[in-house]
């Protein structure tokens, strides 16, 4: 992002003698373009699965799916472009590039991640998730959320960048210190605390229901219910076995809460095992209303051991292009997609549900990627998290694994056990360190038995939310204001800048 200025021969000689370079910051426009290009590459590479989802399950043409992936990448890459722009503005000063301005880079990065969370509503694969298996390092997430890990990574990379901009006599020392810090931080992946004690059992039923092209038939529904019921009661028949809490995932199966076959099957399983059940269902409000008004929800129903349907959680944060289509009237080229997705209604409550003697915080699928929303469950008294999801729409791509890592971070941030049950995988029991202590194989209809515990103490992040990224946004703004008052030439191209500039040490 920096250009070498043409300077007087004696000035060049003096600076080169120190091992430095005459540098000028990129203009704001150059910074934006460089950040934007890197963002497009990042999203095309990490979220390639958008093409698979739209083409294979949305039944859009290959060209339309590719264009949607490109549009998706070009849109989200705007945030990377803004990062490059703000960094260029902050780094500029009249007599050259200021190394002190690099101090603001991690703050700007976290501010941009915060903006992506709240403005676009798609904080997928934030930088901090790369350290999900580094247990000592992830402890900071219980204070700052995942944003604190993003800050650490950006800070270390900023130090490495600064090492190549300082005079040569300082470069070796700064590179050595940076390398030591990097090695020290990564060494945390070698440490694993002892297994945590558990008190309660759970059976996670992985339904592996395919996305059907043909209409859902009664025979197929009944056979599916029989197989899932058999998997649910099987642990009780094994020597010394008990199913504990039974969970059925979100799936493509239209398990309506008004369907007597569904209600009967789940009630029978609950009574036969004397266990509570949490099951992915489709909730309906206004059924039979003479006015014809009816709302459909993506829900999780709770069935008591006596077979009674007691509580229901309705999904709040819906998936764009999955559960509703933004600007559906404008997407004339995606008629098949907009017709099939339809429109779900949104739930309103983040209160935990009472299941046996525990308070359970339930969230569904896409909701797992929103840190500040889910920490409200623990703040409101949830002692264990349950995440039901249908990742079958992603196919055999890396998206389910990315989704899993984001859900694991929610367990770390709030110090809660997480029981994650999915349609096709990854189904797992996750402890408060984010470790997968039990895991079912993907793309199989099976049941996973595991054990967990309940937690009542809340973390700093649970209590205070996104205080850290907000503070980073404020500091980044202060850096921009400081840079503005120190230099008024920010939008001049490098060729028009003074030839007296050099790196400010």
Topology:
Blueprint: E1 2-4, H1 9-17, E2 23-25, H2 28-46, H3 49-57, H4 62-91, H5 105-120, H6 135-138, H7 141-144, H8 146-163, H9 168-186, E3 200-206, H10 218-237, E4 245-248, H11 260-273, E5 277-285, E6 295-303, E7 309-314, H12 335-341, E8 353-355, E9 358-364, H13 371-379, E10 384-389, H14 399-414, E11 418-422, E12 428-430, E13 436-439, E14 446-452, H15 460-464, H16 467-486
Parallel strand pairs: 3-4, 4-5, 9-10, 10-11
Antiparallel strand pairs: 1-2, 3-14, 5-6, 6-7, 8-9, 11-12, 12-13
The assigned structural class equals: alpha/beta
Number of domains: 2
Whole-number mean pLDDT: 85
CATH superfamily heading of the largest domain: Carbon-nitrogen hydrolase
What's the number of helices?
16
What is the CATH fold-level name of the largest domain? Nitrilase/N-carbamoyl-D-aminoacid amidohydrolase
Poorly predicted parts: 1-17, 495-505
What is the ordering of alpha helices and beta strands? EHEHHHHHHHHEHEHEEEHEEHEHEEEEHH
C-alpha-based Rg, rounded: 26 Å
Strand order of the largest sheet: 7-6-5-4-3-14
- Helix fraction bin: 40-55%
């Amino acid at each position: 992002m920096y250009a070498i200025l043409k300077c007087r021969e004696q000035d060049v000689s003096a600076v080169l003698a120190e091992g430095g370079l005459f540098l000028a910051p990129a203009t704001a426009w150059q910074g934006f373009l460089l950040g934007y290009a890197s963002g497009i590459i990042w999203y095309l590479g990490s979220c390639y699965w958008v093409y698979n989802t739209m083409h294979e399950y949305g039944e859009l043409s290959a060209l339309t799916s590719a264009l949607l992936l490109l549009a998706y990448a070009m849109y989200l890459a705007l945030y990377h472009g803004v990062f490059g722009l703000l960094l260029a503005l902050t780094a500029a000063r009249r007599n050259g590039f200021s190394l002190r301005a690099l101090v603001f880079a991690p703050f700007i990065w976290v501010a941009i991640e915060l903006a992506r969370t709240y403005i676009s509503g798609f904080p997928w694969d934030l930088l901090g998730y790369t350290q999900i298996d580094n247990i000592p390092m992830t402890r900071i997430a219980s204070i700052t959320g995942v944003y604190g890990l993003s800050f650490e990574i950006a800070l270390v990379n900023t130090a490495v960048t600064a090492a190549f901009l300082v005079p040569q006599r300082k470069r070796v020392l700064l590179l050595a210190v940076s390398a030591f810090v990097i090695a020290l931080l990564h060494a945390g992946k070698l440490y694993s605390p002892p297994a945590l004690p558990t008190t309660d059992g759970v059976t996670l039923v992985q339904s592996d229901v395919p996305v059907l092209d043909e209409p859902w038939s009664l025979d197929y529904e009944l056979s599916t219910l029989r197989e899932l019921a058999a998997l649910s009661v099987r642990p009780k028949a094994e020597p010394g076995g008990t199913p504990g809490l039974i969970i059925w995932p979100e799936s493509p199966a239209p398990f309506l809460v008004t369907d007597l076959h569904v209600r009967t099957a789940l009630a029978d399983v609950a009574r036969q095992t004397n266990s509570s059940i949490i099951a992915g269902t489709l909730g309906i409000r206004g059924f039979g209303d003479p006015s014809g008004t009816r709302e459909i929800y993506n829900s999780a129903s709770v069935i008591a051991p006596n077979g009674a349907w007691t509580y229901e959680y309705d999904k709040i944060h819906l998936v764009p292009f999955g559960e509703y289509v933004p600007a559906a009237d404008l997407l004339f080229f995606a008629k098949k997609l907009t017709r099939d997705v339809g429109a779900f209604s949104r739930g309103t409550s983040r209160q935990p549900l009472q299941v046996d003697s525990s308070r359970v915080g339930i969230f569904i699928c896409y909701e797992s990627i929103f840190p500040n929303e889910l920490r409200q469950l623990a703040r409101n008294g949830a002692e264990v998290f349950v995440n039901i999801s249908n990742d079958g729409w992603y196919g055999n791509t890396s998206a389910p694994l990315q989704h899993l890592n984001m859900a694991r971070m929610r367990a770390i941030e709030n110090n809660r056990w997480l029981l994650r049950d999915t349609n096709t995988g990854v189904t797992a029991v996750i402890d408060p360190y984010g470790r997968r202590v039990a895991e079912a194989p993907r793309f199989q209809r099976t049941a996973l038995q595991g054990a967990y515990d309940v937690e009542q103490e809340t973390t700093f992040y649970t209590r205070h939310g996104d205080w850290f990224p907000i503070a980073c946004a404020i500091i980044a703004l202060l850096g921009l204001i400081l840079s503005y008052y120190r230099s008024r030439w920010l939008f001049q191209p490098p060729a028009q800048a003074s030839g007296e500039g050099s790196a400010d040490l």
